[in-house]
Amino acid sequence: NAPVLGQRRNWARIWAAAAFIASLGAGSYFILNKPVNEQPIAATRKLHPQDKLVPGGDRAGLTLANGEQVILDSAGNGALAQQGNIKVIKLNDGRLSYSSPKDKPAEVLYNTISTPRGGQYQVVLSDGSKVWLNAASSLRFPVSFTGDKRAVALSGEGYFEVAHDAGKAFTVSVNGTEVHVLGTHFNINAYSDEATVKTTLLEGSVKVSKGNTGKMISPGEQAVTGNNDNV
């Protein structure tokens, strides 16, 4: 099931019957005014269910490795581009999908998918991991994962369902914060004009790190870190 998306800053219910709001009460976390490598990971707390929100439209743009841009909401279904030995495909349900090659690519190519205000979009990465982007968000990712890790970079807000691969940990980088997983469901809220990065876990376990500090969180908990080096 896809998460229910709403307008920016209003994405509260993100998967199945579980519904959580990305917020913490006053005094429930702290961020010290120290260099990045000394900033602590905030304390966590249980989150609370909220009502379903009205979804936004499926609108996004895709920037290919060569700089070419594709407007996804107006593009037809089927193959959109060839990136090395990877095909970029728009599925019948509107999702963007990357084929999984039999042979490893000769070079690592990166794509970026971006949503406008009021938009949202879903992408299926080459390893089968699914990402839902909320409004005014972007995701930079390799068209095929190589080596011993899977690393992507997020701006804005995204919900992740990571395909399990014990040999390749999945890492999301956002504003100096890193979320490390093997296979799990979680949400990251990290808009650039907000003071914090909020990582909310729905299923599995993740480790949220910033600088030399890190914290494991459990389902129904949220970790909060500073959004930039000046916090």
Structural class: mainly beta
Into which percentage range does the β-strand content fall? Answer: 35-45%
Which range best describes the helical content: under 10%, 10-25%, 25-40%, 40-55%, 55-70% or over 70%? Answer: under 10%
**Separation of the first and last Cα atoms:** 36 Å
Work out the number of β strands: 18
Name the helix and strand elements from N-terminus to C-terminus, one letter apiece: EEEEEEEEEEEEEEEEEE
Helix and strand arrangement:
Layout: E1 57-58, E2 61-63, E3 69-71, E4 78-83, E5 86-90, E6 96-98, E7 110-114, E8 119-124, E9 130-133, E10 138-142, E11 149-161, E12 169-174, E13 177-181, E14 185-190, E15 196-203, E16 206-210, E17 213-217, E18 222-226
Parallel strand pairs: 1-8, 6-8, 11-12
Antiparallel strand pairs: 2-3, 2-7, 4-5, 5-6, 7-10, 8-9, 9-11, 10-11, 11-14, 12-13, 13-16, 14-15, 15-18, 16-17
What does this structure look like?
The chain is mainly beta. It contains no helices and 18 strands. The protein has strands at residues 57-58, 61-63, 69-71, 78-83, 86-90, 96-98, 110-114, 119-124, 130-133, 138-142, 149-161, 169-174, 177-181, 185-190, 196-203, 206-210, 213-217, 222-226. It has an 18-stranded mixed sheet that branches. Strand 10 (138-142) and strand 11 (149-161) form a beta hairpin. The radius of gyration is 17 Å and the shape is globular.
